[in-house]
Amino acid sequence: MQRARTIRLTAGIVAMMAVVLVAGRWEPVAAGGPGSATGSGYRVLKPIESGDLTLFPVVRDDGKSLPADQFLTLDEGLKSGEVEVTEAGKVQGLVRSRGGSVAPRRYEGDQVNTLVLVNNSKRPLLLLAGEIVTGGKQDRIIAKDRIVPAGADPIDLSVFCIEHGRWTESSAKFGTAGKAASESFMVQPAVRQQAMVAKDQQQVWDSVHGAIGSMAKATAPMASANSTVTVTAGAGSIESSSGDVVARGLGTTSYAKAMQSAAVSAKVDQETAGLVQSREQALATLRQEHAVGVVVAVRGEVIWADIFSDPELLARYWTKLVRSYAAEGLSGGTAHGTASVADAQRFLDTPTHGTEDSQGEVGVYRCREVKAGGTDLFTLEALLPGTGYDVHISRLKLRGQPQPVY
Fold it and tell me: By the 8 A CB rule, do 127 and 158 touch?
């Protein structure tokens, strides 16, 4: 296990991006050659590598840039107070009937998989599956991508719990994960996948438990090679026969609290504070290249892609995305060689002829899911006036299935 290389994932990514800045501009390289059209409509650039993590910036084939400032992010809304999230039993929201009269919305008490969200801002709110809201009776994550119109009535927000075992209120309302914008994060791809694909609370809890166990092992001191230990991760335990002996577990069932613990933060964020300027320069270069997303590979296996409508949206989500990818790298796993530009391009270009499911809200958004070629593609399309374009696209490799054949 190459833990020494994964200790500084996030900082390493930023440092590598700074090196790229010195070396020159990223060169767009498509599977069919520079400038050629691709099946997905996107091209990948030369990768940024750090330890077991490889990120391939993504640009649009047509070079167009769509507006991004009209959307409010969850972090921005919660921190400004324009967006409120509470337990279902705490809100006496109002909803208008078709005739214009006002009637109180009724709730039957607090619920594990339901929160209530109010968007009081003047902009539509963009929500991504896997984003974390902390507080209330349990920490939760957003269950699916969606858009909430400006000034809309309170909505039932579908969520999954990522803190098994607690059902006592820590605060009346919810906040963001991370004390500062530079510390923001969402759940890692392994947990995100269970929320998006499995859509099952138990499987989300299982993935959280496994992630916390991996964090505990990654932050444990080294010991004799053949020792067998028990890693305590809140409720339950994980057996390990590796050379990583855990002196003690992280002592929490909360994914957010585990990520914010001193030990895990040291693993993921060490030296980040001293590279803020490099980070800003790197983001400036991403904007210059009109990068709208990334393809993610861990230990040489391409597992995920996040693509936005505009470089500015990518920049606004960059920190929390990079930290989530870095957390995925803390988990042990099998090496798959080195991921290439061609591998990343083929992942994006996987044919989308498969089983499709579509849901949303008329005139607001539509979210489409297509399973094909060992991958799952999620596309969030904005339908509000002045939009009519894809705001966010996630493509993920379905775990436990063979690699797609192209």
Answer: no
Q: Are strands 291-298 and 301-308 parallel, antiparallel or unpaired?
A: antiparallel
Q: pLDDT tens digit string along 147-200?
A: 999 988 899 999 999 998 888 888 878 888 877 776 789 999 999 999 999 999
Q: What integer pLDDT is reported at residue 107 of this predicted model?
A: 55
Is there a contact between 374 and 402 (Cβ–Cβ < 8 Å)? yes
* Helix or strand holding residue 232 (H, E): strand 229-232
* Contact between 9 and 268 (Cβ < 8 Å): yes
What is the Cα Rg of the chain in Å? 21
Q: How far apart are CA 43 and CA 295, in angstroms?
A: 10
Contact criterion met (CB below 8 Å) for 48 and 17: yes
- The amino acid at 6: T
Angle (CA) 267 271 275, round 5°: 135
DSSP state of 194: I
Strands (E), 31-124: 42-44, 48-50, 53-60, 72-73, 83-87, 94-96, 102-104, 114-119
* Secondary structure letter of residue 181 according to DSSP: G
CA 123 to the chain's CA centroid: 22
Distance from C-alpha of 365 to C-alpha of 1, rounded to nearest angstrom: 44
**Model confidence over 232-278: pLDDT tens digits?**
333 333 333 333 333 346 788 899 999 998 888 777 764 333 333 45
Whole-model pTM above 0.85? no
Amino acid, res. 207: S
